Amino acid sequence: MNNKIVIANWKMKLSLAETLELAKKMKNKFKGFSGSEVVICPNSLSLIEVGKIIKGGPLKLGAQNVFWEDRGAYTGEISPSMLKEAGCEYVIIGHSERRKYLLENYEMIHQEFKAVLGVEGLTPIVCVGEEAEERKTDRRDFVLVDQLQQALGGINLLGDQRVIVAYEPIWAIGSGVAIEPEEAEYAHKIIKISLRDMFGMKVVKNNFRIIYGGSISSKNVKEFTNLEGVDGLLVGGASLDAGEFYKIAKAI
């Protein structure tokens, strides 16, 4: 888990045709790329086709969401085993936009997390982060610890199970204004301390990576690459440009 990771979240920004075109550009741009691990998360409808495009190269496939049951009468949902069958190796869980617009709560996120851990070779990317008001009122530490306990509490990780925690300050997402590096470093320390309390130092070292997400670009990425406790990046808008995303991946 020492290698860093950069994850592209394309959200619902592209049509199917645009998604496949960007995937082809990414494949060409990252041909022969080595160093950090690189994951792209397109919309669900294009997962299989994007997987075919990037197959055999350094890029890995991830999904933007998942449901907590493997199968059943759950209209519109996609299970962890389905994502694995589609070629996914990663899946984002509990992104702040889903918490805000679709009212996902951490009880649901906890169930999703457990379900993903039950599928071998599928790594959960669990999102946590505070609102602007929580930051202003100095409640960030409490919020982060509480979110982690609700999402991950009561679960014992097996030796080879991997987990990524993505710290995404909600107020910075899509704003074009990234958090101050020192503030990000502090938040990551709080997350790591909380994880150590929950799982122990050895498990955190061997099984967890903690990454940052929120208005990252090639212009500010170097401010985050060498921060203590930052193991990678979750990139939104800047990942919609193959050249820009490549610069970010190279920098990390």
Description:
With 252 residues, the protein is an alpha/beta fold. It has one domain: Aldolase class I (TIM Barrel), CATH 3.20.20. The protein contains eleven helices and eight strands. The protein has an eight-stranded parallel barrel, surrounded by six helices. Strand 2, helix 2 and strand 3 form a beta-alpha-beta unit. Helix 5 crosses helix 7 and helix 8 packs across helix 9. The longest helix has 19 residues. The radius of gyration is 17 Å and the shape is globular. The protein starts with a strand and ends with a helix. The mean pLDDT is 94.
Write the layout of secondary structure elements.
Blueprint: E1 5-9, H1 16-29, E2 37-41, H2 47-54, E3 59-63, H3 80-85, E4 90-93, H4 96-101, H5 106-117, E5 123-128, H6 132-136, H7 140-152, E6 163-167, H8 181-199, H9 201-207, E7 208-213, H10 222-225, E8 232-235, H11 242-251
Parallel strand pairs: 1-2, 1-8, 2-3, 3-4, 4-5, 5-6, 6-7, 7-8
Helix pairs in contact: 1-2, 5-7, 7-8, 8-9
Number of strands: 8
The main sheet orders its strands as 1-2-3-4-5-6-7-8
* Beta-strand share of residues: 15-25%
CATH architecture: Alpha-Beta Barrel
Structural class: alpha/beta
CATH class: Alpha Beta
CATH topological fold name: TIM Barrel
Q: Which overall shape is indicated by the principal axes computed on the Cα atoms?
A: globular
Q: What is the CATH superfamily label?
A: Aldolase class I
**Helix-strand topology string:** EHEHEHEHHEHHEHHEHEH
Please describe the biggest sheet, giving its number of strands, its sense, and whether it closes into a barrel: 8 strands, parallel, barrel
Secondary structure: helix percent: 40-55%
Low-confidence stretches: none
Distance between the termini: 15 Å
Overall tally of structural domains: 1
Radius of gyration over C-alpha positions, nearest whole angstrom: 17 Å
Mean pLDDT: 94
* Helical run tally: 11
